[in-house]
UniProtKB/TrEMBL annotation:
Record field: transmembrane: none
UniProt organism field: Cavenderia fasciculata
Coiled coil: none
Family membership: Belongs to the GST superfamily.
Name of protein: Glutathione S-transferase
Pfam families, alphabetized: GST_N
Start and end residues of each GST N-terminal domain: 4-87
Phylogenetic lineage: Eukaryota, Amoebozoa, Evosea, Eumycetozoa, Dictyostelia
Length: 144
């Protein structure tokens, strides 16, 4: 049996990291957490990018398999593939294919639409110094 405490999650307080922390905890997988200081640009160092070339958090290292994963949805898929034997969080293809596809609908929608649009919305409509009208319209969260 492989030991699981070889898993390290690199992250900050961001929702993309929290998704991974939640699933690790739900699946009772022991893991180490390494804080990455985004304000200091720790995600942009050569050492970090060697592991996670997208230069963002979260990133996950599993030394059991000698793998480095980036993109939160890929991390979630890896965790359910390997540790959710019953298919509680992602139904197995041969058990309930329709339910599996429904979960994947929402997983891809979240990572390709909700996440990025919310991020742009926050930048242009909440935190951004300069108000750009075109961007405010484009990234209004109420739009599709
Ligand atoms: N699509 C990526 C988005 C990751 C992302 O945008 N992470 C942000 C924190 S929420 C980050 O690392 N920002 C720092 C930067 O862009 O330099 C995922 O789902 O993992």
């Amino acid at each position: 049996m492989e030991s699981n405490n070889n898993i390290t999650l690199y992250g900050s307080t961001s929702p993309n990291v929290q998704k991974c922390q939640l699933l690790l905890k739900e699946l009772n997988i022991p893991f180490n957490f390494k804080q990455v200081d985004l304000w200091k640009g720790e995600q942009k160092t050569e050492e970090y990018k060697k592991m996670f070339p997208n230069a963002k958090v979260p990133g996950l290292v599993d030394t059991n398999l000698d793998i480095q994963l980036f993109e939160s949805s890929n991390i979630l898929l890896y965790l359910v593939d390997k540790y959710d034997g019953q298919g509680k969080y992602l139904p197995k293809q041969d058990k309930d294919y329709k339910a599996r596809l429904e979960v994947l609908n929402w997983l891809f929608w979240e990572s390709s639409t909700l996440g990025p649009m919310s991020s742009h919305h926050n930048y242009y409509n909440v935190f951004g110094i300069e108000k750009v009208q075109e961007a405010s319209i484009r990234f209004n969260i109420n739009q599709n």
